[in-house]
Specification:
Elements (H helix, E strand, L loop, with lengths): L16 E5 L3 H11 L2 H4 L6 H8 L5 E5 L11 H8 L4 E4 L17 H15 L9 E6 L2 E8 L5 E14 L2 E14 L2 E4 L23 E2 L2 E3 L5 E6 L3 H4 L5 H20 L9 H9 L6 H14 L1
Parallel strand pairs: 1-2, 1-8, 2-4, 3-4
Antiparallel strand pairs: 5-6, 6-7, 9-10, 10-11
Helix pairs in contact: 1-4
Length: 302
């Protein structure tokens, strides 16, 4: 990526198969970078050192591994459509993976229904294309248990345990079956999501889920009681799921909760603006007028 401290990162792309552990938007982003023709990438704002590294790449196939099933993928339909349009790349989905869900798609929430129907359509219409130079394959119900290496210590593959799904209320859990398989590959990327961390020991936090316990954005204590005047939004509120639109709507919900509580006098007295500014001054905040200068300079540089 474009982080300066990673400019000397030199992954081994000499093999023909890459495995990505995870099935979220970031996993699709990695896929897109690995499989997009170089002449197209060169026209984007990708860093030059990344282009030079990709110029040496021999990767022709990317396999996305998910521990649960098609209904639990985390990527959005927009990102999935983008990889379906990759020039010279065929997307491989297996119809049998969707057989258990063909009768239930009509009852799914609209975003999940559209996503599942698009994956089903892609699977059902798959025909091996001799003209395709690269491929993306999605495999479900698989968990990595071991990285396999050559006697010299180089990666040669991944050992996976085959899972089955167990449902408990609204929770769907992947449970290993004790059956295993191996995938040969020379490159593996871990892309299993962002996880929030504790920002203040006095604020309730669920370390297992990586979220602040809340009810519609209102932070709650260990008994489930609302803590007045304390709110959260974004991934620390609901976990690392969804893109900008989902996160934006999530913020609207929290903002509405704050506005409602203020109107009902459920928020503790707010200190004066002067007190807030004094508090911020010692922390050297970026004021809006300062941000405008940064924005103008970024626009000047294009």
């Amino acid at each position: 990526n474009g982080l300066p401290e990673h400019r000397n990162f030199n992954p081994d792309l000499s093999g023909d198969t890459a495995v990505i552990l995870g099935q979220g938007n970031v996993a699709l982003d990695i896929t897109r970078i690995l499989l997009t023709p170089l002449e197209l990438l060169e026209k984007t704002d990708i860093c030059s050192h990344s282009v030079e590294g990709l110029r040496k790449s021999k990767i022709k196939k990317v396999i996305l591994i998910g521990r649960r099933g098609p209904l639990q993928t985390s990527f959005t339909i927009k990102e999935f459509r983008n990889v379906l349009k990759l020039p010279g790349c065929q997307t491989i989905l297996h119809s049998k993976d969707f057989d258990p869900y063909r009768g239930v798609t009509k009852d799914l929430p609209r975003p999940r229904k559209r996503m599942t129907e698009l994956m089903m359509k892609t699977a059902d219409e798959f025909r091996n294309c001799d003209e395709a130079s690269t491929s993306l394959e999605l495999q479900f119900l698989r968990s990595p248990v071991e990285f396999l290496t050559t006697p010299e210590g180089f990666l040669r593959g991944v050992k996976l345990e085959i899972n089955e799904l167990q449902t408990n209320g609204d929770t769907v859990k992947a449970v290993g079956t004790g059956q295993y398989e191996e995938i040969e590959c020379s490159f593996v990327v871990r892309s299993i999501g962002y996880k929030s961390t504790v920002i203040d020991p006095d604020i309730p936090f669920d370390s297992h889920l990586g979220i602040i316990p809340n009810n519609g954005g209102r932070v709650v204590d260990s008994n489930g009681d609302v803590i007045q005047g304390l709110y959260c939004s974004g991934w620390v509120k609901r976990g690392p799921v969804g893109g900008v639109v989902i996160t934006m709507n999530d913020a609207f919900e929290t903002a509405e909760a704050i506005a409602h509580d203020i109107a009902k006098d459920k928020v503790p007295p707010i200190v004066s603006n002067t007190d807030i500014l004094k508090y911020l001054e010692c922390r050297k905040p970026v004021k809006f007028s300062d941000w405008e200068k940064i924005d103008l300079e970024e626009q000047r540089r294009g």
